[in-house]
Amino acid sequence: MDIDLFSQKGYNSSIDNIIQEFEREKLVPLKRISNEIVEYCATRTDDKGVYLAVMAYILYKTISQTHIVASKTWKKDKEIILSFFTNLKTFKKDDLRNQLNKFIILFQNKDVELYNYIKNIEKKGRVKVGARLYSMGYTTTKVSEILQVNNFELQKYLVDTQAYNQRLSENLLSSKVQLLLKENKHLIFDSSSLISIGNTGLINFFEEFKKKNPKVNLYITESVHNETIDIKEKVVRYGWIGIQYQYLIQKGIFTVIKQDKITQNSTIENLCNTIFYTKHGKLELLQKGELESVIFAQKNNCVLVIDEIITRWLIESPTKLHKLLESRYKEKVLLDKNKLSEANKLIKSVPVVRSVDFMGFAIKQGYFNKFEGLNYIKPLLYSLKYSGCATTYEEIDSYVGKGVDKYVRK
User: Fold this and answer.
1) Strands 352-353, 334-335: pairing kind
2) Is 44 left (phi over 0), alpha (psi -120 to 50) or beta?
3) Residue 102 class from Cβ within 10 Å (0-12 exposed, 13-18 middle, 19+ buried)?
4) Within a 10 A sphere around the Cβ of 71, how many other Cβ atoms?
5) What are the start-end ranges of the H helices in 110-212?
6) Whose CA is closest to 358, among 174, 171, 177, 204?
7) What pLDDT shows up at residue 7?
8) Is residue 374 packed enough to be buried (19+ CB in 10 Å), middle (13-18) or exposed (0-12)?
9) How confident is the model at residue 235 (pLDDT cuts 50, 70, 90)?
10) Which residues belong to CATH 3.40.50.1010 in the chain?
11) Taking the CB of the first residue and of the last residue of the chain, which one, N or C, has fewer CB atoms within 10 A?
12) DSSP string, 226-289
């Protein structure tokens, strides 16, 4: 299918294809159309078009339900859906989010069973489409912003589908944890690492950490606070995590850096988001939360604790990131070497660790000594992996076999 959502003709053609396959009740073509729209939008940074992919996904999942298509009301329901998508061509792409909301409530007073199904699958559809955007280079923060999905749920889905498993060969302890051991560097946490640690039930660890390391400040930016700690006001199921972090802020364990206290660095922002590009335009890799954390870390000589792979590799291994982006986009990704060189001068000095590295430091300092003899190290690190930390089984095995044990056992 040749997609072109920028022109009205191409936009209408895409909807016609969705209508055609839905009318024929063809599962695979509808799923393919949804995926192709996501890929199109990702390569052209078309944030608004992805809602059409969500709609196509909803239709694909709906006709996959035998009890729905076999119901007495299906013929009438199908006619309503076809009419809705036909009328969708009269609206501009910019209005797709509103139209999706209208589609969700289409059967609220007509078919309660279908309404409840569409309402539930729409949430999963946003996460599914978001995961595909992530696989093509979008950060979880950007995905959450575009599709209005919860960062916790998106990260959990990515972990469950192994989308975080990207391996970077390195000696984890020598380059990461020893940095923390030798220097009392301050730490600034991104949303991804806070979520991984929170989902693993290790938030209380920070109080003990602060007691043993009183000279080390723990920072988060206001944007990260809004993404992670404010979750208690938005999604009840993750409220307890947000409350625990808020408690640590009130106790002075964490310090929130207000946006007006972060020296804006348009040079870093411009460079980081224009290094990589396709024939369709630049790839904006870092969003507000990541940018603020990187800028603060660079300005204040902090260690950046981040589990997300895009930001980490941009700082540590841009050539590997280049290969990763090409594999995800399935097309030529170009690299501006001059901008990469300039960016390297500014951000290469930012030390980056993940939650698994940070907990390696905790192991060394004896926080988990009470579990000694229970072979706790691998389960501890695996729990972080399954909570969102971008690491692989091989890395953890290497960590346990060659890294942590070497420093823990005297």
Assistant:
1) unpaired
2) alpha
3) middle
4) 15
5) 112-135, 140-147, 151-160, 172, 178-182, 191-199, 205-212
6) 177
7) 84
8) exposed
9) low
10) 172-355
11) C
12) HHHGGGGGT-GGGHHHHHHHHHHHHTTSEEEE-GGGS---HHHHHHHTTSEEETTEE-----HH
- Please, what sign has the CA dihedral across residues 126, 128, 131, 135? negative
The listed range with the strongest mean pLDDT (202-206, 261-265, 332-336, 379-383) is 202-206
The single-letter code of the amino acid at 95 is D
| Sheet order of strands, 281-282 included | 281-282, 276-278, 334-335
- Residue type, position 360, single letter: G
Q: By C-alpha distance, which of 376, 408, 391, 361 is closest to 205?
A: 361
Q: Is 307 exposed, middle or buried (0-12, 13-18, 19+ CB in 10 A)?
A: buried
What average pLDDT does range 75-100 have in this prediction?
93
Q: Which two tokens stand for residue 143?
A: 């995905």
pLDDT digits (tens, 9 = 90+) for 102-127: 999 999 988 999 999 999 999 899 99
% of residues, the chain, pLDDT over 90:
30
Give the angle 395-219-406 at the CA atoms, nearest 5°: 30
Letter for the amino acid at 64? Answer: S
Going by C-alpha positions, the residue among 36, 56, 39, 41 that lies closest to residue 6 is 41
Task: Name the amino acid, one letter, at 52.
Answer: L
Q: How confident is the model at residue 175 (pLDDT cuts 50, 70, 90)?
A: low
Give Cα separations from 82 to 57, 70, 233, 246 (angstroms): 15, 17, 37, 47
CA distance 121 to 133: 18
Dihedral angle, C-alpha 293, 354, 168, 312, nearest 10 °: 0
The correct answer on CATH 3.40.1360.10 for the domain covering 172-355 is no
349 CB-near residues (< 8 Å, 6+ apart): 298
CA atoms within 13 A on the CB side of 22: 28
The residues near 330 (Cβ < 8 Å, ≥ 6 apart) are: 39
Tokens found for residue 282? 């630049």
Q: What is the Cα–Cα distance from 395 to 141, expressed in whole angstroms?
A: 25
Residue type (1 letter), 252: G
